[in-house]
Amino acid sequence: MIVNSLMVVADLTTLGPVTAVATPGILRVLSDRTEFRWLWLGNLISVCGGWFSAVAVFAMVYHHTGAGLAAGATLALRYLPGVLVGGFAGVLADRMDRRNAHGGDRPGPGRCRRRFPAR
Question: What is the DSSP letter of 10?
Fold first, then answer.
C-alpha cells in the first residue's frame, strides 16, 4: 500500500491494468487552436518585455550609481505596490462584478474595455 500522511492513496495489489488518460498537452493545444496560440504568444512576448524592462532598469541604475543598494532599492520599489496592495485588491476583485473589475489598472486596456462592453 502507498500511504500518505493523511490517508491511504491506493492498494497496488487490487489495481487492474493501468490505462493512459489522454490529456491535451500545451503543444497540442497550441497547434490545434489558432486563436489561443496567438493569445499565448502575445502574452509570452508581453511577459518577456516586462522582464527585459526590469533587468534594463536594474542594470542602468547599477551602472550609473555603482551601488548595489540603489539597484536593489529600485527593484524593491518596482514590486512594493503589488506587495502592499495585492492582498486587499484580490479580495476587492473577488467581490466586484468581473465585467467592471478589469481595465482600471492600465489606461490602454481600460479604454478598450469601455469601447467593447460585455454582452
Answer: E
